[in-house]
Structure formats: structure tokens, C-alpha cells
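Usage example:
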Amino acid sequence: MQNQKTKNIMIVGVGGQGSLLASKLLGHLLLAQGYDVKVSEVHGMSQRGGSVVTYVRFGDRVYSPIIDEGEADYIVSFELLEAARWMKFLRAGGKIVTNTQQIDPMPVITGAAAYPENLVQKMQEKGADVDAMDCLSLANEAGSSKAVNLVLLGRLSHYFEDIPEEAWEEAIESCVPAKFLELNKKAFALGKAGA
Amino acid sequence: MKELMLGNKAVARGLYEAGCAFVSSYPGTPSTEITEEAVKYDEIYCEWAPNEKVAMEAAFGACLAGKRAFCAMKHVGLNVAADPLYTMSYTGVNAGMVIGVADDAGMHSSQNEQDSRHHAIASKVPMLEPSDSAEALEFAKIAYELSEEYDTPVLLKMCTRVAHSQSIVEPGQRRESSKSYEKNIAKYVMMPGNAIRRHPFVEERMEKLRDYAEHSPLNRVETGDSGIGIITSSTSYQYVKEVFGNDASVLKLGIANPLPVDLIRDFAGKVDTLYVVEELDPIIETHVRSLGLDVKGKELLPICGEFSQNLVAKALGREISESASIDEPIPPRPPVMCSGCPHRGLFYTLKKLGCTVLGDIGCYTLGAVAPLSSIEMTLCMGASISAAHGFNKALGAESEGKTVAVIGDSTFMHSGMTGLANIAYNQSNSTVIILDNSITGMTGHQQNPTTGYNIKGDPAGKINLEALCAAMGFESVQVVDPYRLDECERVIKEELAKEIPSVIISRRPCALLKYVKHSAPLRVDPDKCRSCKSCMKIGCPSISMKPDANGTVKACVDATQCVGCGVCQQLCPFDAFESCGKGE
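Running the assembly step on the lines above writes:
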């Protein structure tokens, strides 16, 4: 029942993977494009290696700070299992942009549960449009395993045809420390080009 | 200039613009960033206090002296600070005094889901309730005006979704504001003869504030379709607008206490069906019913947990979007102790020794989670020590030799010292373990009185835990390194065996602290690993069992996560763990 003009991006992953920079950068970018923007984050206990989600919403007038089931236009995932966990938040026709990296949660580590196999295929069978790529390798290629967030944003930018390249560049320059700028720009370009 | 700003940062901006000059707080999710942002303004003196009661009293002292003052805390922190709050309601203020309190519906990072509006009602203190960052900034400024105009402390109520959401604000300019201090015994000394005269003032003040609530722009009607009328506040307002837009009329309440009467009656009279949409307890709803109005609320909407647009839509009979999911179950991903967490080795030892562990509030509460499953009780800040004393007094020799209290350094400073004084005074044969990781961890690394640094990271006073325990009369105080399992086991056994109260300090800084240098990651020699899973008993997120080239399942270390703490190495009977090389 949401305001039709509001677009929804969810950023999901494992606590500590760097999703806060991704949401900061998106917020900066979308505000500069003249949209009303809301971004919701999770702080505190969940950050300790738990499943984390950040909501980014933009449009003419955004009310709720969160995204609900069936509403996300994009789910950007740092980890494969997390993409599947949050898939029910995707709207019909929405897109999942995900890293194929797998990080075992504690129930898998202790043997109490198994990490599901062929998740990309299973999500596609349920109607999700999934763009999966090995962002960790691309991040390493750019110079640091920590640049997975910029690889993912690069890939996401590929689908935002009405936001010019320069706007993304400006957002990266504003949100990333100068020391790591070249590395992050490279990661973004590699992500945009795709696997 | 428009800016995207976190709700908590917007509160800090509001404090700055209102001329606030003093902030004292104790960190607590989701309130922490207010103080962390306020400290960035040179015009505001900021500090971390040992607990919320001290913070509120310090802020009261500053307001008494004539400076606009503030303290922030999470909902349960207001319980700790309830004592000064309820009587500050009587004394009133000199310069403005605002108290930020952040509720955590959904318990993202809390031990209960209490609704702090009850404290506002019970203490007879006005409470403002913003619904986004722009209101957080604006309401913080208005709170100071109300505080001085009505001679009252003012509560500013945040919740997780307002505190930790960014939305657009337009920052303004700071206006300095201060008063001079004047001695006034009848107003500020709350002994019976004076307090008796202040109580009627409090009641009259609430009546005046009720008049204010009838006409204040903080309570507003948004006229839409008159078939449905919804009274709401805070983040619930955002969900209501998301679902209904202009398909309903909305009475948006920015003042949670006191609630208006005529405004509500008037609104109710203009709509066909009246709803109240509020998270947690039915406080507005009960008020509306007390006016004899027909209203729907908690029979449709839950008391437990947080709301969302879909929850509100379903409860009020609206359609929601379709969604799909994969068929097989997805393993949960609960929070875990980090790789290299100093708490891990200590809890492994306590489990191995079969100890009864009474726990406390902090990252180490995760010691209750499998596979460590060691902590058996967590109640509130400081309760580990007091409860261990009661447990041992109740069971005597049956429990004394195997029961321990575990409490972090910051929590110990917050409310552990008084419990320890009770053990020292009433002499239970209890063993207290202070988990000294040299920081307030869970809330995101805040300094505390044991770290030697203040909120800005500058050198500050440092309380010596060993000397403190000795001064209380503890004859047996030992320090252990929780990375050394043999040492932990020996010392815990020794202290439990003694027939006197004792303290063990488990000391090693949090592995996430920037100054902590880590060893190189470890790796498993697959030829040595016999798949015994001894290393899996510590619940380290860096270690898992994976098939090797021959399909045999062996221990495997994730080198991107491992910080080389070596705890797993000490558990391996086959010496299969080896270092990958040089650390940082």
C-alpha cells in the first residue's frame, strides 16, 4: 500500500561487512538528485556478526523509514544466504544484486543446520531476478577485500539509468576517505562492468 | 542547507542550536549517538557518566547553575535515573533541562520492551515525541523553551526507528542561553516541609501543560477522508501515512504527556470510526477510552514488538503486497562473539568447570548462546553480583564452590560496585569475575571510568579495579589473561575453592579496538586434523568443518576473520593449528 512513487533499496549482509558506507553513499547520492530520502540502520547487538539490514527509500515524499515484505525494488546483498533470507521483502519484478560469498552462520558452524545449496537457482525459481557475482574477487582485484561494498554499488548503478555517472562519482568522492578513493573507484568500475 | 541526518544526530543538533552547554550520559542503544554527536560541538561540555542516575544528577546540577543541560539514556536507563527524575519534577529547573530517552520496540538490543511514557505520566513530567529527524531537531529546541516556561524537566522520547533513521533536516543557528544561579532553599531542598508546597505546583503545572497540548502545533490534525480517523504518534505516524496517505484523517500527537482532551473529542466527533495506532502499551488508547469515546486499538494491533506499514495495513483491513520466498528453511544468523573476543576463553573455561554463571548486560551476554551456553541469568545492569550473593546465601555450600558472577568493566562501574559492597559487607562466599575488556563494548566502544580516557579520547581519571576491590576488603583478587585457558582454569578453581569472597579480573582489551595488534591468522594442517571437533566447542565464527580434497570433513579457518588469538590452538589435541606468518 506504499506511496507508488517511492523506490526501495535494501542492503543486507552480515554484521561488520561494511553496509553502513553503502547506505551513506546512496543517501548522499539520492539527496543530491533532489529526492526525499530516508535511511534506516541497525546498531547495537545485531552488529556482532548477526544478520543486518539497512533500508534506503527515496521518492517525492517518503513516510516510513523501513521497507516491508513485498516492497523492495532492489535487494543488495553482501552474502548469499542473506539474499535468500530477505528475499520475501522483494516486490514482484524486483531485482536482487548479490555477492556469491558464503559466510557460515553459527548454527551451520556448530552443525545444527546446513547451508542451503544452489541458492541463486532457488531464488530464480521463485521468480526473483538475481544478478549474482563474486564481489570478493573483484574487491581483491581492486586492492582490498573491504571494497565489496563499492563493487556491489557499482553493479547497482548499472540499473539506475537516470542517475548520471558523475553523480555516483561525486557521491564516492564525498563519502570515501581520500586515501582509499582510487581503490574504491576501481572497485565501483569493476562492479559496474559485471563479472 | 538540507542535510540527511540520523535522528540521534538531529537531537544533538537541536541541543546545539538551543544553546545547551552541558551533556552527561551513559551509553545505551538506541540513544548513544546523541551524546557522541553532541561532543563534536565545542560549545557543549560532554561526558560519559558511570550510570544514568549520575548523568541525570550531573545535568541537574548544571541546569541549577544556570546552563541548559541534557542527559541521554535508553529506556531501561530511565529506571536507574527514576529517583532524581521524580523529585526533579518537584524542584523544577533553573536553566532548561531536557532528558533524552530512547525506547526499543522490537528489542533490537535490549533486555525488555518497556514503554517509557509510563515514567512521564508517573513522574508528572511533560514528554515530547518526534517522528523523524526534522522533528527531533525541532522538538529538542522546543523542549528547552517549555522547560524554562513551565519550570519543569522535559522528556524527549526517541525510539529505535526515529533514533537510527536518517531523514532530511535543515540546520539553523545556535542561540546562547544561560541564567544566573540564585539560592532558593524552598524550591531546591526537597525535605517534607518544602516538598509539600511543591506538589500542588506540579499538579497545577500539568494542568497548564494540558492547556498547552490542546493548542500546541506539536499536536496537529491532518484532514483527509473522514470515514477513518487515526490518532497516532512517533514512528507509528509514518506507517499510518504510508498506508493511508489522505484516505484517513490523522491526529498526530507530538506531545506524549500530557495528552489533550478537547482536541481528541473534537477530532473524534469529525470521523466515523476512530482508531489509535501506537507501539507498545495502550496509553493514548486508555486516555481516549477514559473520555468515553468509542475507539479501536489494541484489539487490532499488538502490544509486543515493533510496527511496520504492512502490520498496520493488515490490522486496519488494507491489502499488502505479495511476496515470495524459497521453500527450504534458512538457518538463522544470531549475533555471536567476534573472532578474537577475549570473553570466549573465559566462558569456555566456566562451561568446562560446570559453573553456575550469573550474567550481566553487555556483549558477554552472548555467553548464554550455543555452543558456550554458559550464562544462566541476565536481568539488568549489575544484577550478576547482587544475585550471586543471594544465590549463595540461599544455597550455602551447595552453590558457593561453583557459582560465579560475570560482569563487564563498564557495567561494574555502572551498578556492580554496590553489589560488591554487599558481598564485602554481608560476607557471602561469592566469586565475582570482572570481564575487563577496557571499553564499553556492546554500544560501540565508549570510554568509562576504568579506561583512563574521557569521551574525547583525552587522558582522564582511571579507577584501579584491583585497588578498589582491596579497599572494599577483598583479600583475594587475581588477574588472568582470558586467552590463556590453563591460567583461567587454575585461577577459577582456586578462587571457587576458597571460603572467602573473591574477585577475578579477566583482563584483555576488546579485539575490535583499533589499538589492539593481532597475531597472524591461523590455519589448519589437514594432515594433522583428525576431525575431533574439539576446536568447535568455543563457537568461533572463524572456524568451521569443511570437506578437504578427499571429502573428509576437517576443521578450516577463515583467514579473513581469524585474528590469531590462539584459543583454538590450545584445545587441539593434535597440534593441527599453525600460524600463517606475521601479524600486524
